[in-house]
Amino acid sequence: MKVAVVGxxxxxxxxxxxxxxxxxxxxxxxxxxxxxxxxxxxxxxxxARLAGAATLYTALGDDELGRRAKAELEAQGVxxxxxxxxxxxxxxxxxxxxxxxxxxxxxxxxxxxxxDDPLPWEELDEVDAVYYTARDVSALRQARRVRVxxxxxxxxxxxxxxxxxxxxLVRSGADPGERYEPGSVEPPPRMVVATGGARGGSYTLRGxxxxxxxxxxxxxxxxxxxxxxxxxxxxxTYGLVRERTLEDAxxxxxxxxxxxxxxxxxxxxxxxx
Length: 273
Prior knowledge:
With 273 residues, the chain is α/β, with parallel strands linked by helices. The protein contains 6 helices and 13 strands.
C-alpha cells in the first residue's frame, strides 16, 4: 500500500509547564526541546508507521532548520520531497500543561508545495491514499489523482476554491476554526468526520444522518495532546483503503489519535513498537 501527505512542516519548540500563563504572569517551564512537527509532518510519520513508508510532498525553508526537519523525518521512515523556499520556515511554540493539554502559537506563514514545483507529482497516480494539509489550490488538485483523498477542515478556503471531491473531511468538533457548514464546499465531501478526543466523535455520509463512533482506550498515561488530530486523520486515510468496513477505519483512526497523546511532542505511537 502506498500512502502520502501533501502538507506543511513547522519547526516546533515545546515547553512543559504546570499551567499556561495568564496575561502578565510568568511561569517556569521544565526542560524544553525542539523538533520537526506541523500537521503534514505528524501525519506522514503516522502513515509511515502504519504502512512501513510514506512520502511527504512539502515546501521547506532553505536554511538550517529546513534541512534539519528533512533529515529528522527521513530518519523516521518518511521520504521527503520538498520544494525549497528562500524564506524562514514556519515555527511554532507549544505550551504543554500538567494535564497534557497543548496550547500552540504559530509564527510565520505556512509553506505549501505548489503544482508548478519540480516535485514528482506523477507518482501520485500509483498512490492509494493522500492526506492533505497544505494551502495551495493547485497542489490539492494534484492530490486528487489518488484513490482516497482526505483533507483537514483547517484549509476550508483552499478546499472551496479547488472544487475537488474529497473522500473525507476531518475536523475538530471543539475547534471553532474548523467549523464546517454543509454546502460550504462543492462538491460536498463524501464524508465529514468530527473528532471529539477520548469521547470518539461523529461522522456524516453525504446525504445521510450524523452517526457517532466510540473513542479508543489510551494505551498509556496522557503526556500531551500535540498531533492527536493529525494522527487520527492519518489513521483514517490509511483505514479507508486498508480496513474492510468504515467502522474499522474509524476505530483505527481513533487508536492512532489516542496513542499520540501518550508521548511527548511529535509522538506517533500506533501500532505500538
